[in-house]
């Protein structure tokens, strides 16, 4: 059985790599780099919870819970880390509006003019009513 090498989303053999019309040599290190990056982030979970609690004006970071690494959403270099807030309804919120900044024109331009450049994706978001989009 031929030896396989790990890419970001799949494993590949030398013979399969020869059949591709792209050079995959630079992609061979992506999986390890991504895992190292995720490990660095996972060491800072307590800090992430503290920062989120600070910005939400909670007195303790115990109300914030970072999801396990298996539940993180990611692409090649972007990562979205779900954080669950417990007891948020009892805390008076500073406002009822959420500002979502998304540079869509820049994304569209990149997608049309630089298709090889990976860009972030918005997979969805949740409303305070529980509705998920």
Write up what this structure looks like.
This protein is α+β, with helices and mostly antiparallel strands and 133 residues long. The chain has a domain of 43 residues. Helices cover 30% and strands 12% of the residues. It is built from four helices and six strands; from the N terminus they run ββαααββββα. Strands 1-2 form a two-stranded antiparallel sheet. It has a two-stranded antiparallel ribbon with strand order 3-6. It has a two-stranded antiparallel ribbon with strand order 4-5. The longest helix has 13 residues. About 4% of the residues have low confidence.
Write the SSE topology:
Blueprint: E1 4-6, E2 11-13, H1 14-19, H2 30-42, H3 45-55, E3 64-66, E4 73-74, E5 79-80, E6 83-85, H4 104-113
Oligomer: single chain
Give a count of the beta strands, DSSP E runs of length 2 or more: 6
Query: How many helices in DSSP terms?
Result: 4
The spatial strand order of the largest sheet comes to: 1-2
In helices, the fraction of residues equals 25-40%
Main sheet record: 2 strands, antiparallel
Alpha-carbon distance between the termini? 44 Å
Strand content: 5-15%
Shape: elongated
Gyration radius (Cα, Å) is 20 Å
Average pLDDT level: 77
Q: Given the helix and strand composition, which structural class is it? A: alpha+beta
Low-confidence stretches: 96-100
N-to-C SSE string, H for helix and E for strand: EEHHHEEEEH
């Amino acid at each position: 059985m031929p030896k396989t090498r790990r890419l970001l989303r799949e494993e590949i053999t030398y013979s399969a790599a020869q059949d591709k019309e792209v050079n995959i040599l630079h992609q061979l290190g992506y999986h390890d780099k991504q895992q190292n990056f995720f490990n660095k982030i996972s060491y800072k979970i307590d800090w992430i919870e503290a920062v989120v609690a600070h910005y939400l004006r909670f007195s303790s970071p115990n109300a914030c819970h970072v999801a396990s690494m298996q539940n993180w959403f990611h692409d090649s270099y972007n990562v979205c880390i779900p954080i669950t807030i417990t007891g948020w309804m009892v805390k008076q919120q500073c406002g009822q509006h959420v500002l979502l900044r998304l540079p869509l024109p820049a994304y569209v331009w990149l997608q049309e003019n630089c298709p090889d450049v990976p860009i972030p994706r918005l997979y969805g978001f949740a409303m305070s009513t529980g509705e998920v989009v």
